[in-house]
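pinned: reference chain
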Amino acid sequence: MLNLFFATHPQLILTPNTRENLTEKTVRRAKWLARQTVSLPESLAHAEGADHTDWISRACEWEIMKIIDEPSMYLSSSPGILLLEVVGLHKLQMLAETEAQKSRAYVVLGSMIQSRLTQIFLRLYDAHEHIKDVFAFGAIMGIDQEHWEADCSGAFSCARAAAILCKTHDCRVYLANIKEDIGLGIDLIALTRSNAGVAISVKTTHPTSTFWIEHVHTQPKPEDVQLKDRRRRRIFTGTQKFNERNTMSTNAVCILIPKFLDSPYTIDPSLQEVVRCKNFFRYGLTSNTTQPHLTSGL
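pinned: its structure tokens
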């Protein structure tokens, strides 16, 4: 079971000593792709029923391969390949016409886009000017600026949360898969040194706020209807379902990341954020519950 988890969840790693960037060739190709006309995939046009996530995501991955129409050797950096995929998915997302199509497009393709953008931002850890370039794509022809900026903002917060977690050196961080993101409200999954499992919901908060990490150890009451209570309820119930499906014992955690209003868009966490996170793993997980663990079945 653990091998399956590792096979289906990309590990997020900081590489501050290995500078990756977006080449001029990559940027030109992505801008060209944004201006192209694409067709609505059958999976978005005709899917019916409650759960067609796998079908839609696989069909759209195949579709963007055809749209990009370039071998991976064409690009010198993996962030570039991911950027082309994001632009392709964004183009497909904008084709949705009916309410049912829009629902599928914004949920499924939105998750696929944010997953790739999160990886791009982490790969560009030491290239802040290129992170700014990714945000700036919202202004080019063929891109819906409002949706692009919203996707970038959510992914940037997720990338910053992952960077803070990685900087503690107290855990390994993995990207949740599309079903965990959409169905359970889980963005990241961390495994600590003591093999504690942590299912994490990352939310963007007000720019004047500070980094916040919280162990959601009890489910909010039904009468608790504030935004913070809805967030806690979502990750608490999502983590319960995750544990049932994966024979794991994990804690529900909510992370709040202040929104960045302008450049420089830096992924590098502050010392205060790292210390707060380290203290959380040292004390926060054990203050209200017994230490979680991966079950022997994994």
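why pinned: The chain has a mean pLDDT of 81. The first helix runs from residue 2 to 8.
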